[in-house]
Amino acid sequence: EIVLTQSPDFQSVTPKEKVTITCRASQSIGSSLHWYQQKPDQSPKLLIKYASQSISGVPSRFSGSGSGTDFTLTINSLEAEDAATYYCHQSSSLPQTFGQGTKLEIK
Amino acid sequence: QVQLVESGGGVVQPGGSLRLSCAASGFTFSSYGMHWVRQAPGKGLEWVAFIRYDGSNKYYADSVKGRFTISRDNSKNTLYLQMNSLRAEDTAVYYCAKDGGGMTPGTFGYWGQGTLVTVSS
Question: In this complex, do A34 and B44 lie within 8 Å of one another by their Cβ atoms?
Answer without folding.
Answer: no
